[in-house]
Every structure is written in C-alpha cells, then in structure tokens.
Specification:
The protein has 455 residues and is α+β, with helices and mostly antiparallel strands. Among the domains are: 117 residues, no CATH class; 93 residues. It contains six helices and 19 strands.
C-alpha cells in the first residue's frame, strides 16, 4: 500500500518575511552608496575644485614677468646719412640777348650738342646796319670839320703874323694893341675849334665801333661746348632786352659729369665730411644705386618750414647719360663704418624693467572679477626712435632663458634679469655698437617685457 504524498513547498514569498512597504505597494529605498544624486554632487564639486585650482595656477603664471630677448652678436656696422636733392649740371649757362630785335633764324634745338663759337640765333640786322651807316657819316663829318678848323687856324696864324710884322717895322705905332689882341684871340679860338673837331672824330669812331659790336652780337654764339637743355625762342619772335637780358637757351656744359645737390639736416651735418662716398637712387631707376662722392659741404644754412639744412654737393659720373638734370634723388652718405664689432639692438639699450608697486600686488580674491580679463599693452622702455647715446647699461637674461633675435619668432624668456654696464658707440638706427663694458657675444639681452595675456 502506497504512502500519501506530502504537499509541495510554497514557491511565492514568505508572508512572514514580507514587510509593510511591500504589502502597501510603496517603492523600495536603495542604500546611500547607491544614490545617483550623491555621486553627481561629488563629481561636480571635484570639477569645480579642479577648475578653481587651474584658474589660480594660470593667474600665478600670468603674474610672472616674461621677456623678449635677442642675442648679442658681432658684425659690421655702417652709420649712414640720408638726404634728398636734385641732379644738376656741373655748370649751367643761360644764353641771352643784349639787343632788342626780331629773331631771323634759330640754328639749334633742344638736346643738340653745340661747340664754342657756334652761331645759335641770328637777329634781323637791318636797323643795325643803318646805324652803322649813320655812324660812318658822322665820322666823315667830324673829319671834314677837323680839316675846316685846320684851315681856319692857318688863316688866323697868318693874319696875326702880318700884324706883328707891321708893328715891328713901324716901331710899335701901327697896328694898335687892340688889333694885335684880336688877332691873337682869333688864332686861339681857331685852335680850340680844331681840338673840338678832333674830339668829335673820336666820338664818331666810338659810336661806329659800338654799332659794329652790336651788329656782331646780332649773331648769338655758344660760349662753351655743351648740350642745349631748353629753348625759348623761335624765328619771328620779338626780343625786348631794354630792362634785362632775355634768356634764349639753357646749356649744360658737360652731361657726362653731373652734380647732386642734397640738403643735409642739421642733426646729421656733423657726420658729413669732404670725400665721403655715397650712393643715390632716382625714380627713373629705383633699383639701381648710383655712386657719388662729396665735394662740398656748405657753411650757409637754408631754412625751410623751420627745418635747418645745409646744401651739400656730390659729384656724379654720368658717362652713359642715364641721368638727366632736374631728377629728384635720395642719397645715402656713408659717414662711418665699423668692422667686426659687438652689436646689440637699440631696443635693448632703451629697455628698463618694470618695478611693481603696492598697487600692482593683487591678492587672489582681488584677482577674481566679472567680465572678460583686461589686456595689458606691451611695455616699451622709450620711444622706438629715441637716441641710445646716453644708455649706460643693458639687461641680460640668464642663459636658461629662451629668446629670439629682435623679438622675431621669439619665445618669452623667464628668469631674473641682470644689469650689465656698457659703453655704446655709433648706431645705424637699428643696431648699436658696444665699445666697452662687460657684455659678451652670445648673451641674451632683453628688448621688451610682456605678460602672457599680451602674447
């Protein structure tokens, strides 16, 4: 006989183990370490703390000064003076006319080469020839008058001789003393008229000579060899030279040798000397430098718009005739040259480190501000073009700093700058020669200071 099968164990939840929230249908509360909002809050706090730390570190890095440096080098330095002026002929001749009249013929034109004595212009000589004829007639009349006065003198002398002979034969009784005095006066008058006639001849000869000279001047000739630069006359023009000589031509004596007139500023004239070499350019040949040499530095000044300048002459070889009178030129005069000298940028001599005052010391709290950060402009020790002659020191960054020459492609160097005494020499406006002091080639001199925000 089989035994009865016992009942199966219940598979559902134990009613005794079921808590009240389950029976009531409420959600089960997870443990504290599994709560999501707690971990989100912790992560946000960590991120905020990291952000604050990073921001404070950035502010500290920005507060440290950073420098632009350039290396001290050795090289050649040239001190040059720049001046503007014009190209002129070595000798320019203005050819004019002393006579008034009508131009009959013009034999030359602009750019023609002329020779000394060559006839350039011929004036109408009809009036001049008539004046010569008139002077010749006046000379003939003066000579005829002299002959007439000679006959009168002979007649008066003969009459006086007869009176004196009669007086001698008569023992002084006849003629009377008055008749003798009259005869003597008549002879003296005749001799005076003869002298006036001779003077008249001299006057007529002078007038004739003047007319002949005027006739020769009607043909205007070249006083020297040269080239015609300008022409201001044509056939048929009336020339009026009553007040001043009229300029008909301008002639350059020799275009193969020219002269450059430049005006040197008073600040540079002390460096300009006779014999110094120079180069210049003109607008017609902007890429071609022309050589020149100083032949004169004027002592007299020229004042234009309150700027004092001194006229300086430079001789120019123009054998190829590429230069023309009147061209505007910019000349560079080599005043001084130095070979293999110690060189530093001018900015290094003008630089001085910024000193932080009480107002520059900011706490962390004061550094927190709303809005975008304020940018600081790059500091400059002095004006860019200031003179460096009075500088007596430069600031050097230790060898660990990094820098670039003239601040180009330069990394900002950090460290403590050190002052080095120097004795500056000449400067070309960009680099300065160092003639004494403790500076050595290869040192990194500070040329500017900046902050990280200004990079």
């Amino acid at each position: 006989m089989n035994a009865p099968t016992p009942p199966a164990a219940p598979t559902g939840p134990d009613p005794a183990a079921t808590d009240l929230p389950t029976l009531l249908g409420e959600p089960v509360t997870p443990p504290w370490y599994r709560r999501r909002w707690l971990w989100i809050t912790v992560a946000a706090a960590v991120l905020a703390a990291g952000g604050v730390w990073w921001w404070l570190a950035s502010r500290a890095a920005q507060a440290a000064p950073r420098y632009i440096t350039a290396p001290v080098t050795r090289g050649d330095l040239t001190l040059s003076v720049t001046a503007n002026g014009t190209v002129q002929p070595t000798r320019s001749i203005n050819i004019g006319s002393e006579l008034s009249g009508t131009v009959l013929k013009v034999n030359v034109d602009v750019n023609d080469n002329i020779r000394k004595g060559q006839v350039l212009v011929v004036l109408d000589t009809a009036k001049l020839r008539d004046q010569i004829l008139r002077s010749q007639a006046a000379l003939a009349a003066a000579r005829a008058k002299l002959e007439q006065n000679g006959a009168t003198v002979a007649e008066a002398r003969a009459a006086l001789g007869r009176l004196e002979a009669v007086a001698e034969l008569s023992g002084g009784k006849v003629p009377s003393r008055a008749e003798l005095d009259t005869g003597r006066a008549t002879l003296a008058r005749a001799m005076a008229d003869s002298g006036a006639a001779r003077a008249g001849i001299s006057d007529a000869l002078a007038a004739l000579s003047t007319d002949q000279i005027n006739l020769s001047k009607a043909s205007i000739t070249a006083p020297a060899d040269g080239v015609v630069l300008t022409r201001a006359v044509d056939p048929g023009n009336a020339v009026a030279a009553s007040l001043q000589a009229v300029t008909l031509f301008t002639v350059a004596e020799d275009l193969a040798r020219l002269r450059l007139w430049v005006y040197v500023d008073e600040a540079d004239v002390g460096a300009v000397k006779l014999g110094q070499a120079a180069t210049f350019t003109v607008s017609a040949y902007p890429s071609r430098p022309f050589p020149a040499r100083i032949t004169r530095v004027g002592f007299g000044s020229t004042i234009t718009d309150n700027v004092v300048t001194y006229l300086t002459y430079l001789d120019v070889d123009n054998a190829d005739l590429s230069l023309r009178p009147g061209m505007t030129a910019t000349a560079t005069i080599v005043a001084t040259q130095r070979k293999d000298v110690l060189l530093v940028p001018n900015a290094a001599l003008r630089y001085a480190p910024a000193t932080a005052g009480p107002a520059d010391k900011k706490s962390i709290a004061s550094g927190i501000q709303m809005g975008p950060p304020k940018t600081e402009s790059r500091r400059k020790g002095a004006a860019d073009n200031a003179s460096t002659a009075a500088a007596r020191q430069v600031w050097v960054l230790p060898a660990t700093g990094k820098g670039g020459h003239d601040g180009k492609a330069a990394d900002s160097g950090t460290g403590v700058p050190v002052a080095v005494a120097v004795v500056p020499g000449i400067s070309d406006g960009r680099m300065t020669e160092i003639v004494g002091g403790d500076l050595k080639a290869g040192m990194q001199v500070i040329t500017a200071q900046q902050t990280a925000s200004s990079k």
